[in-house]
Amino acid sequence: xxxxxxxxxxxxxxxxxxxxxxxxxxxxxxxxxxxxxxxxxxxxxxxxxxxxxxxxxxxxxxxxxxxxxxxxxxxxxxxxxxxxxxxxxxxxxxxxxxxxxxxxxxxxxxxxxxxxxxxxxxxxxxxxxxxxxxxxxxxxxxxxxxxxxxxxxxxxxxxxxxxxxxxxxxxxxxxxxxxxxxxxxxxxxxxxxxxxxxxxxxxxxxxxxxxxxxxxxxxxxxxxxxxxxxxxxxxxxxxxxxxxxxxxxxxxxxxxxxxxxxxxxxxxxxxxxxxxxxxxxxxxxxxxxxxxxxxxxxxxxxxxxxxxxxxxxxxxxxxxxxxxxxxxxxxx
Length: 332
Ligand code: CDT
Prior knowledge:
Bound molecules: 4-methylsulfanyl-2-ureido-butyric acid
Order of helices and strands: EHEHEHEEEHEHEHEHHEEEEEEHHH
Number of strands: 15
CATH superfamily: Carbon-nitrogen hydrolase
Helix content: 25-40%
CATH class: Alpha Beta
Number of domains: 1
Low-confidence stretches: none
Radius of gyration: 19 Å
C-alpha cells in the first residue's frame, strides 16, 4: 500500500470587506488543525485569500487590484504580507498545500491560479491556471445584490495546459522511494471540473490525486439556465447534485482520487456558495465530506494503490481506448 493522510480545507463566508488578516488567520488555523491530525497534504479552495470578487462589477481600480497577488521571482511563492505567512506556516508544519489565488504576472496578465507548494522546501512544485472561465464579460445589471460571474472580465484563460506532476515531497507512509511512490497530482479549478476533456488529459498522464478548489453559486438562475422561477432550495440542491455528479463520475473514469475544497457559505449575507468539500476514491465513492458551510477540515486516509485496479482493468487506456474515433473532440 501507499498510504497518505490528506484533507480538504473548506472555508466559510468571506465578505467583500472582511479584513485580509482575518482570512489569513483562518487559513492558518486550518493548517494547524491538519497538523494536529497528522495530515500530510491539504487542498484549499479557488481564490482562497479573499471573497469571490468576480461576482461584483468593480470599477474602482485600486480595489480591483487589491484582489490580485504577485509572485516572488526567487521561488514562485506569493510574497505579499496578506499571503506569505500562510506558506511560511505550511512549511513550518511540513504540510504540502494546493491553494487558489488571483494571480497578476509581472507583465500585468491576470489569471485564476492554483499552486502546489512543498511543505519540505517551501517551493512551488507546480502551478495551474484555470482554463474554463465561466460567465460573462459584462454584468447582468448594476444591482449590488445581483450575482454576476465576471471571470471573463477579470482573468484570461490559463496558458499552462493540464500538466500532471509527481509530488516527491509527499511520501507515502513507510516508503523510502519518493521517485516511484509519491502521488501523481493534477489540478483543476472550479468550472474546469465540469469538462471531461480536462480530466482525461490528466487521466492520460496517470493522475492519482486530482485537486479541485471551487466557488459555486447556490442560486443564480440567470447563470444556470433552464428554469428562471426555480426556488432557492431546488437551485441549491441542483448545484450540489451537479458538483458531486461530475467529480464522482470523472474520478471513476480516470481511476483517481479527488479532493475538492469549497469556499462556502453566505458572503455579504446574501451571496450563497455551496459547500460539498469532499474526498472521492478512484471508484467514485465519497469517503469523507463536509457537514457545515463554515471553515471545516475534511480528512481521510487514502491508499494510492487503490487507483491500480481501475487503471489496469476497466480504464486501462492502452487496452481499451479508441482515440481514432475521438478526433472531433479536438478539431471542434
Ligand atoms: N467559480 C466557478 O467557476 N464557478 C462556476 C459557476 C458557473 S456559473 C454557470 C462553477 O462551475 O461552479
